[in-house]
Amino acid sequence: YVRSAQLLLDNGADPKIRDNDGWSAYGLAAISGFHDTVDLLIKHGIDPNNANDAGQTVLMYAAKNGDIKTIETLLDHGADPNIVDKYKCSPLVYAAREGNADAVTLFIKRGVKIDYEDQFNWTALTWATKKNHLAVAKILIGNGANIDRKDSDGTPILHYAIANKSKEMTQLFIDAKVNLKAKDRYGLTALVYALKAKNSEIVDLIKNAGGSY
Questions:
Q1: Which region among 23-37, 129-143, 164-178 has the lowest average model confidence (pLDDT)?
Q2: How far is CA 29 from the centre of its chain?
Q3: What is the 3-state secondary structure (H, E, C) of 114-165?
Q4: Which of 165, 162, 168, 163 lies closest to 211, judged by CA?
Q5: Which of 55-64, 66-75, 165-174 has the highest mean pLDDT?
Q6: Which residue has the higher pLDDT, 27 or 151?
Q7: In the prediction, which pLDDT does 28 show?
Q8: What's the rounded Cα separation, in Å, for the pair 111 and 180?
Q9: What does the radius of gyration of the chain's CA atoms come to, in whole angstroms?
């Protein structure tokens, strides 16, 4: 594909022309994982932060797909790892909610803002917890993600682990010294929330960790 792209460019093709969804050839090449073509187009002046009509950059799609090579190529050419789409979702959020642990690790190594909030005040850790991606949650917490943050609804992240009936995720937060006294907008602590969910195993975990009503 890179030779075809080079031929077209040599004959005057405009790499900045977009399709009906707002994608340029650069965007389509990146989404498809054509790393050499991405590299070529960037060298021909394409903005690495080129986005579609929804404000979604190709870095976000690479993060969503867990395409490490494309992520590295884009970052090496100056793509912004903290850029957000119209829903305020960053590339890290895209990686976290799909459970792409290697991509999450890469973004953290590149200095991404780990606690950036989307339009619902959900962070990458919120998404990992809601989607029950334990490996991703471990990475985020191990790198300092805020475990006590509440979303725009007033819900502590731990409550999502309890809602998923995930003993492992709940234990992860307990081991990280989450605030078990934190309440949601209805005044429910983690223990009360677990009791209402009728999950005796998680109730026991929280009680043994010092959780209260």
A1: 23-37
A2: 22
A3: CCCCCCCCCCHHHHHHHCCCHHHHHHHHHCCCCCCCECCCCCEHHHHHHHCC
A4: 162
A5: 165-174
A6: 151
A7: 65
A8: 30
A9: 21
User: Which amino acid, residue 117?
Assistant: E
Give the per-residue SS3 of the chain.
Answer: CHHHHHHHHHCCCCCCCECCCCCEHHHHHHHCCCHHHHHHHHHCCCCCCCECCCCCEHHHHHHHHCCHHHHHHHHHCCCCCCCCCCCCCCHHHHHHHCCCHHHHHHHHHCCCCCCCCCCCCCCHHHHHHHCCCHHHHHHHHHCCCCCCCECCCCCEHHHHHHHCCCHHHHHHHHHCCCCCCCCCCCCCCHHHHHHHCCCHHHHHHHHHCCCCC
pLDDT-based confidence at 12, cuts 50/70/90?
low
Asked whether residue 68 carries a pLDDT value surpassing 70, the answer given is yes
Give the position of tokens 């093709």: 13
93: which 2 tokens?
């959020």
